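Ticket reopened. Same input as before:
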Amino acid sequence: MGEWMTVTDPDLSSDSKNICQYTSETKMSPSSLYSQQVLCSSIPLSKNVHSFFSAFCTEENIEQSVSYLDQELTTFGFPSLYEESKGKDTKRELNIVAVLNCMNELLVLQRKNLLAQENVETQNLKLGSDMDHLQNCYAKLKEQLETSRREMIGLQERDRQLQCKNRNLHQLLKNEKDEVQKLQNIIASRATQYNHDMKRKEREYNKLKERLHQLVMNKKDKKIAMEVLNYVGRADGKRGSWRTGKTEASFFLRNEDEMYKILLNDYEYRQKQILMENAELKKVLQQMKKEMISLLSPQKQKPRERADDSTGTVISDAEEDAGELSRESMWDLSCETVREQLTNSIRKQWRILKSHVEKLDNQVSKVHLEGFNDEDVISRQDHEQETEKLELEIQQCKEMIKTQQQLLQQLATACDDDTTSLLRDCYLLEEKERLKEEWSLFREQKKNFEKERRSFTEAAIRLGLERKAFEEERASWLKQQFLNMTTFDHQNSENVKLFSAFSGSSDRDSLTMHSRPRQKKPQNMSNGSPVCTSKLTKSLPASPSTSDFCQTRSCASEHSSVNVLNITPEETKPNQVGRECANQKWSMASRPESQEGCYSGCSLTYTNSHVEKDDLP
Amino acid sequence: MNFSEVFKLSGLLCKFSPDGKYLASCVQYRLVVRDVHTLQILHLYTCLDQIQHIEWSADSLFILCAMYKRGQVQLRITVWSLCTKSVSYIKYPKACQQGVSFTRDGRYMALAERRDCQDHVSVFVCSDWQLLRHFDTETQDLAGIEWAPNGCVLAVWDTCLEYKVLLYSLDGRLLSAYCAYEWSLGVKSVAWSPSSQFLAIGSYDGKVRILNHVTWKMITEFGHPATINNPKIVVYKEAEKTPRLAPGRLAFPPPRAAAGVASPAETKYEIASVPVSLQTLKPVADRANPKIGIGALAFSPDSYFLATRSDSVPNAVWIWDIQKLRLFVVLEQLSPVRSFQWDPQQPRLAICTGGGKVYLWSPAGCVSVQVPGEGDFQVLSLCWHLNGDSLALLSKDHFCLCFLETEDRVGTAFGRPGDHT
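Engineering reply: fixed in the latest deploy. New output:
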């Protein structure tokens, strides 16, 4: 608050100065203090005004007072209280009207002043509170500033530390690098030294060896040397073709020839393989191209109609190319020309295909947005309603079944009753039989109901997903195309071993699938193999772990089969497609109407049987 | 699956003849030749000393028995003709991991040589032992050579101190040089695919790199992580079978306790759900020959699968699908894998871990089979018969045959994918 004071002080002082000016102007006024008070004071003070004035003006000093007031008022710019004197001597008379006017004006002024004062005061208060608020804000901000400053200092410190650390790490890294370099140098020098030493040692060793050799040779007795006792005749009766001095040159040449022949054969073999591989690949490319062309040709009218310049021309180009390339002779041309043409055309085709697929995608998304407007597609809501209805029906049927079950049970308990049992002893067996039959019938019906319910819900889901199926169909079609190509590839891969080692080995996987049926085989083994029935081999019964062996085998094979499934998702896809097709057929068969019909039929039989039941007791 | 009776054996020396009719095995200084089908002894030879090595001739008519003790130091290779009195000498052979390699058709032999501190390779024509090609290789210290199965490309790899694989044509041209990384232990194992299309290189960084035969560049890199996250990968875990308590046969003392030491519990394979973390061995860094890297590699006969063993994950066998170039199956055994071998006829892998069981894997599944018989038969090694019908299981002192097929191969335990029944 002290601060506030200091801040506001100047204003106060200026106020007081103004007042001072006023007073100085008023001169010698005894009431100057009061007037000042009046100016500054609040309303309560004004109550005392009268008493002041009464004190100011008495019977005696009316004249003086009036003149004084006149003087004062004139100085303030009011008209004189006295009438305009016509003569100098004539005593000026008090002008009542002017006095009253003056008074009125003064009062108005007073009121105005009071109002102004009030305003000022309220403003003052407001400003005070504002000031307070600002003061608070200021303090807060100051605090904030302080904390942030401190924070900044902290961060700076941390930054400094981190930088320091970084520098240290850099230094360490450098040191490490130096160390590595040094160690590498050491290793290199050691290696050279080692090699050097090794060479020296080896030379020594060689010398020693020679020495030893000499010693051995010196001591050598011909009899110690190994000799072949009995020579073996060759099966073909020829003598071995051992090297002799004379024929050395010709032998050498022959050997060279043979060696080069072998190498040549190897290279030829490899070239053949590569050629085959190339041919296969070319075939694949050609097939792909053909298929692409055949695929795209029905569509080609559309783009032309649309005057889609780029695709249109590309297609016509492609057609021309196709015409050229389809001639078989082209395949025998040297690689470069064919390769260029082929790759270019394939690239073009591929571009067209891509754009086409994109177009299709767009269409699909459009259809998606438009929703199902086709009449033959039943809306999902209908399906849901239908399913709900059917479910309700099923529920009812179930309840009926339950009640019937209860009744049956009651019947059974009733049969236990002594008297009834006596009475019904003769019928009991027969009836029980019948009951059993009916019971099984009910069971079956129940099962059917459930099955149908399940299938119908599935159908509902199916139909809801028909849109999706369309997309899938398209995808599967593309996949099929792709698979056809790859299978083509695989068929030929047998011919090209080189190629097959790298190509995707789906055929191998399928082979492992084939091998699965053999899992049961180990059981045969326990029969014991006739191989061991000879006299010498005591054919031991299959080892104790054979049974276990089967277990592990089955376990392992399970795993492997899973594995097979996991490994080749492409393989499983065709199956999926097939299943989808099957589903489609099925869903066609089970249209809601037919379903309903069936249900009603079932319920009919049901009720019939129910009636029969009722008759039973 | 049936087992023959157990025969005596020493030095793990047991080999089928190349024509698949005979089985040669050694017991100390005796060489026994049996008929593969009847297992009757056809011949019994007695040598002067303990036999340390046997080898069949390619026509199955002869067997070589080596008694190194009776040998003599000679720093060369000597080639004796069995038909004539001719003898050939080849100087400077290099004693290394795999210094000699014959082509599959037996026409050529490549030999690693060392002279004047420089590695060389000589290619000989086996028909007359004439030197066909001789060239030096850019290796520090050549460790091994191996012909591609088609006999046209020779793979040469450097010592483990440096990762370097060189590929030479039959005529001595350098086709390609491959180096995956520097300054670290390099190649540990190398294997050609039977189709000669791929060269698999296992290295000390625990990876197998596969080179192709066209560009001789790497096609793919198979890491052997200790945790398997991919749910597509099947992890078979060997687990001890929980003893099934048959109430009727409950005896006291429990029979398992009596036989417990002699025959350990039977095991079975369980399919572990991913993620699976395999048992790893922390290698001792300051010893030579650290137990890290790919120690064993083998392609299946049809080149479809590659089996590997990482020495830092000793209990696991990794089987990779070469067609899809990805990990296919991991088998985790209870004890470290000793060796594995592919059936020569079909993608079927036999594994032994030095215990009393033999393990078989095929794409259809896998199985653990206890070798029957009294006492513990610790399978240290195994070898397939040519036609994949039987399997010789070798322990320290015994061997037995394991018959897998019935006579007409219809009741085959592991159907080959694609076979029709």
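Chain B touches chain A through 86 residues (CB under 8 Å). The radius of gyration of chain B is 23 Å. Please confirm and we'll close it.
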